[in-house]
Task: inverse folding
């Protein structure tokens, strides 16, 4: 349709400009579709920590605005089938962003995905504004995956370049391997990921680990580094859980392989308790190399084999190709956008087959 060609020029405008009169839609509206670990303790101010959190809506009208806590950070937005674009809630007064205006008076969809890590911004969603009314949103895909990971899964610096300092503006989970894979599989993902986190030891931590804030310490809670609410696993029962950790555990040549194995086993026990029917895949890569890559593969193979011997046959292994620089690097040697595409190229057929079994 013609409006798609001009849509991007009409988006991301602050609400101060001339536009159709709109009415407020509360976050509690049952037409709004949520995906991810979201805390609804205050239903008028749902908040979240992890990238990949989705807020989707369909509306009959011409204009849609989104309201968030000022300084909530960055979302990727897609209106109907138009090209996705980034919207930002930056400063202390920036609480409303116009997602689209002057559209044909018809039914439209808006899909919003939080594309950065929210541990600093502490984002909150405050609702929508529209000149029309909400309608039922399209159903979510039937296939569901949970990704547990570190900066690689977050998309750390994938829009940046090697030599640049990290900025959240250059992190875009939407174009990371996890979401690229999901779109190819027509699946939907919930994400539990934080840069620097490990299965037993976070980046730069002492050899004996990070017991207070490693992934096993965080996994059972809705929000990162916030123990006020335990996650209700009945809200999201995935078909597959992908665990991509180890890079930080094996960093700075200050690690204990026995403790790493214990960390993986503890996390597997937590994942299995919360998701008793899910297939669990231990991923390895793509930033590790040399001795550390060999160690990670060996330990993951051992944990998988021991799970099988104990009767859990639904544990699997998958290795990404190590990055070599032929596709460039993002910030701080992290995977570039093209490297994430290669990772999705590799993971997609593996998960497609796994979900058919």
Result:
């Amino acid at each position: 349709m013609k409006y798609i060609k001009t849509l991007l020029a009409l988006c991301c405008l602050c609400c101060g400009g001339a536009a159709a009169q709109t009415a407020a839609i509360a976050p509690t509206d049952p037409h709004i579709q949520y995906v991810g670990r979201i805390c609804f303790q205050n239903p008028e101010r749902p908040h979240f920590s992890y990238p990949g959190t989705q807020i989707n809506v369909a509306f009959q009208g011409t204009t849609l605005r989104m309201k968030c806590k000022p300084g909530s950070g960055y979302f990727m937005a897609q209106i109907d089938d138009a090209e996705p674009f980034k919207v930002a809630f930056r400063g202390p007064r920036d609480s409303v962003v116009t997602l689209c205006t002057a559209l044909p008076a018809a039914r439209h969809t808006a899909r919003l995905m939080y594309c950065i890590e929210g541990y600093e911004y502490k984002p909150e969603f405050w609702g929508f504004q529209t000149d029309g009314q909400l309608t039922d949103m399209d159903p979510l895909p039937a296939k569901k995956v949970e990704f547990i990971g570190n900066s690689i899964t977050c998309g750390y610096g994938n829009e940046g370049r090697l030599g640049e300092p990290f900025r959240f503006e250059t992190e875009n989970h939407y174009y990371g391997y996890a979401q690229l894979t999901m779109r190819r599989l027509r699946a939907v993902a919930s994400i539990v990921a934080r840069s620097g986190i490990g299965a037993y030891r976070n980046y730069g931590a002492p050899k004996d680990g990070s017991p207070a804030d490693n992934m096993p310490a965080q996994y059972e809670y809705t929000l990162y580094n916030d123990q006020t609410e335990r996650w209700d696993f009945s809200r999201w029962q995935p078909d597959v859980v992908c665990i991509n950790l180890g890079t930080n555990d094996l960093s700075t040549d200050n690690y204990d392989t026995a403790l790493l194995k214990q960390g993986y086993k503890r996390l597997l026990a937590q994942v299995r308790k919360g998701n008793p029917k899910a297939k669990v895949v231990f991923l390895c890569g793509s930033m590790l190399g040399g001795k550390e890559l060999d160690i990670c593969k060996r330990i993951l193979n051992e944990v998988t084999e021991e799970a099988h011997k104990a009767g859990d046959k639904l544990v699997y292994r998958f290795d990404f190709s190590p990055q070599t620089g032929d596709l460039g690097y993002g910030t701080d040697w992290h995977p570039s956008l093209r490297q994430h595409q290669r990772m999705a190229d590799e993971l997609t057929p593996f998960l497609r087959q796994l979900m058919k079994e």
About this structure: The two ends are 40 Å apart (CA to CA). The helical segments are 2-10, 151-154, 177-185, 215-218, 257-274, 290-309, 337-356. The longest helix spans residues 290-309. The chain is about 25% helix and 25% strand.
